[in-house]
Amino acid sequence: MAATRTRYTTVAIVLHWLIAATIIFQIIVGWRMGDGPKGSPTTFALFQLHKSIGFTILLLSLARLAWRIFNRTPAPPVHQPRWEQIASKIVHVGFYVIMIGLPLTGWILVSTSRVVVPTLWWGVIPWPHLPGLPELAAGPKHVWHEIGEIGHGVLVKLIYLLLALHLGAVAKHQILDKDEVFQNMVPGAKPGLKEPRAWLVAAVVAAVVAAGYLFTPTLKTAKPITTPPPAAEAAAPAEPAAPAPTEQVAPAAAAQPEAVAAEPESALNDPVAWAVQKGASLTFSAVWSGSPIEGRFNRWTADILFSPEALDRSKLSVSVDMASAVTGDDQRDQSLPSGDFFDTAAHPKATFTASKFRKTGEGQYVADGTLDLRGVKKPLSLPFSLKIVGDTATARGVTTLDRTTFGVGQGEWASTDQIAAKVKVSFSLTAKRK
Questions:
Q1: In whole angstroms, what separates CA 171 from the centre of its chain?
Q2: DSSP assignment of 344-405, as one string?
Q3: What's the rounded Cα separation, in Å, for the pair 400 and 382?
Q4: How far is it, in rounded angstroms, from Cα 298 to Cα 97?
Q5: Can you tell me the distance from the alpha carbon of 406 to that of 350, in angstroms, rounded to the nearest whole number?
Q6: What is the pLDDT, as a whole number, of residue 180?
Q7: What is the pTM of this model?
Q8: Which member of 50, 197, 201, 311 lies 3.0 to 4.6 Å from 357 by CB, making a disulfide possible if both were Cys?
Q9: What is the per-residue pLDDT across 20-39, written as a single tens digit (0 to 9) for each?
Q10: Domains of the chain by range and CATH?
């Protein structure tokens, strides 16, 4: 019975201190998110950590509320004024509103974000978005996002007030009133400043604050490409493409020259169809807040009709499945197909076509063509090295694109402060003569 109970139940005490420590840690993480560069890898990792902590607080708080419903709390001190009892109840109700409301409003924000980033609870368990919100039209979705943002901001300010009132009340009961309130949550504690358990709690709180500032979540970077991606498929030679415009994007330095093996003069007088072999790669790299991000496209096709002795009749067509882009971070990879980046729903493929080739040195060539990416067509020059031995050709090339000219990066991602404009694209392949 509450009238005879001298403290909370063990389950209630454990949940209380777990939630308290988690909330304090979460506040510090939230401050760090606001202080860091927007869109940086560290801020992104803190944001993912913030979501995991928030959903943990939600689950713990629901468990605490359920336990509270079926287990009565200790009676207030006999001589406690009525106004203090009412104020205590208001603060406790306020804490439940905060502990459940903050994660819920954060959940609304995540579910209505323009860039839908999936949530992995503690990096392992997929956490769903709130049903119905991600599928809303732009107008209602924006309204819900505003509701979540305003609600989250108001509740954050309210928690500061409640924490100040709660800690102040605990200090009053322990130091001035010298009653049993503190021992309700710290069994065996005695009133007064000299109580060692009180100082132990203060030390633990300080340690949680320090951990919030010192802990750095693991940054997910691109996984090294240690195994070759699925082989690029080669189809029949493409129809001749229109000549590329004279204006060209400045290419990056080409790969190191490779000597061209001797070949019978008559063997390659006409363009030859080549079939790309297993192990070919199409990769890209960019800089995100000073850190390199590397990725690759797992699905792409190449139609090649080429001969060093018939450059004027050679042609090339490459089609890339933009939804196959991977960078080694599951959450980032699932955001790349969105409208803010590749917009694969409207533009599932990117294509590069070329029908003009130049020889720039021994074993060195440039393909002048057009890149169609995200519905934007721009001239592009692709330098590459080539080596032909018998019926086998190996080629490598690299060029640089300006992502902003193709609209890759909308809204907050259009800025080049965090994600650089320049993206390096490289390929490496072996092909057999058909």
A1: 42
A2: TTT--EEEEEEEEEEEEETTEEEEEEEEEETTEEEEEEEEEEEEEETTEEEEEEEEEEEGGG
A3: 9
A4: 47
A5: 11
A6: 82
A7: 0.61
A8: 311
A9: 999 999 999 999 987 766 65
A10: 10-214 (1.20.950), 272-433 (2.40.128.110)
